[in-house]
Amino acid sequence: MSRTVHTAQAVYDNEIIQTKLLREVEILLLFKTNVKLHFILWSILGRFQWYFFHKYVDEKRAYDFISNILIEDRKNILIVSHGTLM
Questions:
Q1: Which of 10, 45, 49, 57 has its CA 20 to 30 A from that of 84?
Q2: Beta-carbon neighbour count of residue 75 at 10 Å?
């Protein structure tokens, strides 16, 4: 179970609807190494990678997600997400 679903179940008792339009931004390895990076450095490098290589793909997914919510005209909605996108 993903940590987002686990969090959603902790705060909400009814049906949880999952979508692939919301997912954590992938941080790909640029080179293979066994060196462990500090979390802050890893996050900064991941943000740069996203900005230059994946920004438009992820923005399209987010736009599609919000468009679907508006089309369905739901009155109350709780969005639970972890990661860079949200």
A1: 10
A2: 4
